[in-house]
Design goal:
Length: 49
């Protein structure tokens, strides 16, 4: 499977909400901050539409 990099701009409020949800669900980097990349990747992979 080929992997590509995608960049998306979102409002700061959306980013804060996503970071909060990522931490709540356990997507945390070793540094303690939210692992937003992993959280978004899993949202895309698990989208069943």
């Amino acid at each position: 499977m080929k992997s590509v990099l995608i960049a998306v701009r979102v409002p700061e409020a959306v980013k804060k909400k996503a970071e909060s949800k990522a931490k709540k669900l356990g997507y945390i980097k070793p540094s303690g901050e939210a692992n937003l990349s992993e959280y978004i990747r899993n949202l895309i992979i698990n989208d069943r539409r």
